[in-house]
Amino acid sequence: MTLRVAAPAFASAEALPEIVAFMERVVPRERPWGPDLAWQYLSNPSGVARYVNAYDDSARLIAHYAVLPTPPLAEFAGLLAGTYLSLNVAADPAATIPGLMIATTRALYRQLQTDGPVVVVGVTNENSFQGFVRVLSFRSLGRLSLSVYPPGVWPRAQPRRALADVPAHVRWRATRPGVRTFVDAARGGLTVRLRHLGVPLDAVLSVGLPAEAVGGLSLPRPARWVPRLYASFGGMVRNGFPVPDRVRPSPLEYVFRVFGRDDLTDPVHRYLSATRFEFMDFDVV
Fold first, then answer.
1. Burial environment of residue 105 by CB neighbours within 10 A (0 to 12, 13 to 18, 19 or more)
2. Residues 1-11: tens digit of each pLDDT
3. Where are the domains of the chain?
4. 198 torsion bin: left (phi>0), alpha (psi -120 to 50), beta (else)
5. 4 near 55, Cβ under 8 Å?
6. Is the pTM of this model over 0.85?
């Protein structure tokens, strides 16, 4: 079996059906992929997704990798040409081509930095962590905390968020298809409703958002009786209870890499280590 890595591309409505069919085939799940990918790849106010596809010698799609543009790092907006979230690293398990995902991801990274220096952040699971850190030279910032809060209790909004608070991005994040979203304008809190073992649970996308980011959202307030789940790096666990590792579906490791400006790696590392990254900023809920 041979490999053909296609040229990196910007997401489009015409290209999406092939990617949706691939994700449905290799990463099956209860929630359909189509609405989510259309929302993520095409509706993001920070820009459409950028991706690379890889094909076998029969022109069958066997690997896909995408990154989503995000709001900039608050202190580096003038120094970086873009900030991206690593997303949807997927390969056909039947494809036995060595280095399949490495070739795919590297092709996209080479293209991204032609615009200038960029930073790619990501949240890896146990399977992908070693590949990103050992092979792709990402730096690890550590594991995200995951905590449960009793009804009526919210996480502390400290320290400040790593990504700039862009109202259009907050509005977009609140419109994920098939997800019930709630807002507490007084707390600057945005939550989405989940169910675990049939029990309702609100995941806190963010807390402490500025009034201009949440004030115009026409959404209901969160229910007082529903407990809350919060995943973050840099968030304060106060009045909450850490979720034990044994019941977490997978460790969530926070990683990043700067492309095109090696001298920015250490400053970005220090900045990300001292700021808050949360559910709002990555694709889990």
1. buried
2. 678 999 999 99
3. 4-143+250-281, 145-247
4. left
5. yes
6. yes
